[in-house]
Amino acid sequence: MKKGIVVLLVLFSVFTYAQSSKLRFGVHGGLNYSGLRGYTIPSSFEQQYDESAAFAYLGGVSMEYQLQEKLSLRVELNYERKSQKADNSMEIRFNFDEQPQVYNFTTRKNYDYLVLPILLKYSFTDKNSFFVNGGPFIGYLLKSTFTNDLEIPNFETPNEDMTKDSKKTDFGFSAGVGKNFELGNSKMIHVEIRNNLGLAKINKNDVWNGGHISTNSVNFIVGFSFN
């Protein structure tokens, strides 16, 4: 990830000497709908454990340089949480002479990343309203946690730090579609839907059925930019 930050600084230096009208800076944020893939849950667990994608958040800064009339290079540095939830069902018997009690609860796997996407952006209209973009991304894991909302009387269920069980680097390909809204005075708001397909294996330990863990997320982004 240090190399990614160096690349960002180099690009910033180059762009600073370019024509200011071709360079835009921005901030953005939004929702992140993400999940994990690469493995299957054994059928014997399906009644007690059901995984699904979950919403989280992201935010970051951007630089965009106009290469041609409708083509630009966009570089971002984002903080992004990739999360997956699971609905759990567990029976607990506190006394042998009593019936077991069923507890339903939700667990979450959270992966907090610093992500560097490098995107080529193509705008379809003269006013640069509708656009598509795509390119590689690299992510550096800051922290990974396993949380739950299980509540059992007189029993503590602490959250677990899983950072040591996950690889530090994630990488893949991003592609998105969006629209710009010009505000005047070289200011602009944009909205975008972007998919990030992780290609790296991020787990260190074995997972179910000999599979692996890779990320996948969909971003719902709102941003503001200026030059």
UniProtKB/TrEMBL annotation:
Pfam families linked to this entry = OMP_b-brl_2
Q: Which residues form the Outer membrane protein beta-barrel domain?
A: 18-202
Among InterPro entries, the record links this protein to: Beta-barrel_OMP_2, OMP/PagP_B-barrel
Q: What is this protein called?
A: Outer membrane protein with beta-barrel domain
What species is this protein from?
Flavobacterium lacus
